[in-house]
Amino acid sequence: MKRTKIVDIFAPELIGNQVSVKGWVRTRRGNKNVQFVALNDGSTIKNIQIVFDMEKFSDEQLKPITTGASIHVIGQLVESMGKGQSAEIQAEQLEVYGTADPDSYPLQKKGHTFEFLREKAHLRPRTNTFGAVFRIRHHMAIAIHQFFHEHGFFYFHTPIITASDCEGAGQMFQVTTKNLYDLKKDENGSIIYDDDFFGKQASLTVSGQLEGELAATALGSIYTFGPTFRAENSNTPRHLAEFWMIEPEVAFADLNDLMDLEEEFIKYCIRWALDNCKDDLEFLNNMVDKGLIERLEKVIDTEFVRLPYTQGIKILEEAIAAGKKFEFPVYWGCDLASEHERYLVEEHFNKPVIMTDYPAEIKAFYMKQNADGKTVQGTDVLFPQIGEIIGGSVREENYDKLMKRIEELNIPMKDMWWYLDTRRFGTVPHAGFGLGFERLLLFVTGMTNIRDVIPFPRTPNNAEF
Ligand code: ATP
Ligand code: MN
Predict the structure, then answer these.
(1) What angle do CA 430, 232, 143 make, to 5 degrees?
(2) What are the Cα distances from residue 414, in Å, to 107, 213, 272, 366, 419?
(3) CA separation for the pair 285, 288 (Å, rounded)
(4) Closest residue CA from atom 30 of ligand 1
(5) pLDDT by residue (tens digit) across 140-150?
(6) Residue 45 and residue 84: Cα distance in Å, rounded?
(7) Do 341 and 382 form a contact (C-beta atoms < 8 A)?
(8) What is the spatial distance between Cα 372 and Cα 308, in angstroms, rounded to a whole number?
């Protein structure tokens, strides 16, 4: 008999039919006449209740049905008398696939802390919360592809192993096949890479942007969606050493086009979650963050504030003059700390903010220089609770200006001739951004630690599983 997934079982037309379900036991309770099992198969947050009439089953048969055990039940789907569910199954046949010894199975009924569950990352997808988070993660990935596909962007694959180290977005992990116990060095003590796999030093990518620019200046509009790696030793609730990044890049786009794209894209993703992840969001709203759904609805209905950095500094200085205390100093040219970003977003505007036109000194070399000679056309999208969710910019398309900046910053570009060729041959204005997938998921799920929105987090001192 064909298995019915629990997500499909509540269809009214199935009532009265014989059904076959398979899944993991969440709970069992009852008395000597009747036993109730809540079964979940991961297809939905919802459990199906299975009713065992103890005239048809023996205690011995039901003994292995403990939390975590995997079973197969065939029975009749009937309307439920109990509240909170529309249907239940009157068990006729039971098959036990695997038991889960209550003395050693770590996920017992009562709620566990997220810290505890991080140590059990191999099993936590079986909990309600992580089941919900990882289903939402799937739906958000679909939303992203759907958005770009609908808008005529091509999905472009940029390399994960790279030999260019100039992006400067973060510390890189090296990729090597060299024998680390026996490294060949030159007279200055520098490692010689000639005999390494790629014949030069190679690393895991920190961003696909530079290759994305090559694609945008050929295909027009592209996006990447892949893993990125940063060996930054920042043990925060918002940083991972391995995370997924979405990086669209658009030829012929200016600063306004860029901000429009950022805002439209992020709203599309959030609307998608509200439309496609209703049950999971309702669960998270009840159990994790009571303000979640309201916050998501509010964001799609608000126009984001577009705020030049210089004006942002003025607002912060005025706040300080009026008595607001910050840990870090505020002055024109400073890199805003997250306390400053959160003040603007959560207290001053109470809306997402797209901050633009940052001082060149605190931004990457490739950002388009403004006529004032001081600022560049970078944009950070700042979100309540999260802080920076997107970093983007218009790219400097003028070869001479770009080279001047590269020389000023002493950036090693000898392996980057291919990037500079975009500015030598048929250069065009273009812009793009990077969105951290897990930062988006933090916002959409209401989870507060980035380790809890990726199945197997990689952070300093942690690569278990
Ligand atoms: P932050 O200032 O928060 O460290 P960043 O300025 O280094 O971020 P970018 O280089 O602009 O980040 O990367 C683009 C986006 O990638 C960020 O807006 C953020 O959403 C995400 N991101 C960056 N670093 C990480 C990380 N270590 N873990 C998860 N997401 C990240
Ligand atoms: Mn950034």
Answers:
(1) 50
(2) 54, 18, 44, 16, 10
(3) 6
(4) 436
(5) 999 999 999 99
(6) 13
(7) yes
(8) 13
| Cα(85) to centroid(ligand 1), Å | 42
Which helix (H) or strand (E) segment is 387 a member of?
A: strand 387-395
- What is the C-alpha separation between 132 and 284, in angstroms, rounded? 8
* Token representation of residue 267: 């709203």
Is there an atom of ligand 1 within 6 Å of 392 CB? no
| DSSP alpha helix (H) spans, 381-452 | 399-408, 417-424, 437-445
Predicted confidence at residue 81, as pLDDT, reads: 81
Shortest-distance atom of ligand 1 to CA 381: 18
Q: Whose CA is nearest to atom 29 of ligand 1?
A: 239
Please choose, from the candidates 121, 35, 33, 105, the residue with its C-alpha nearest in 3D space to the C-alpha of residue 75.
35
- Strand (E) or helix (H) holding 36: strand 34-40
Burial of 31 (0-12, 13-18, 19+ CB in 10 A): exposed
Average pLDDT over residues 175-190: 92
Please state the φ and ψ torsions of residue 73, each to the nearest 5 degrees.
-125, 135
pLDDT of residue 307: 98
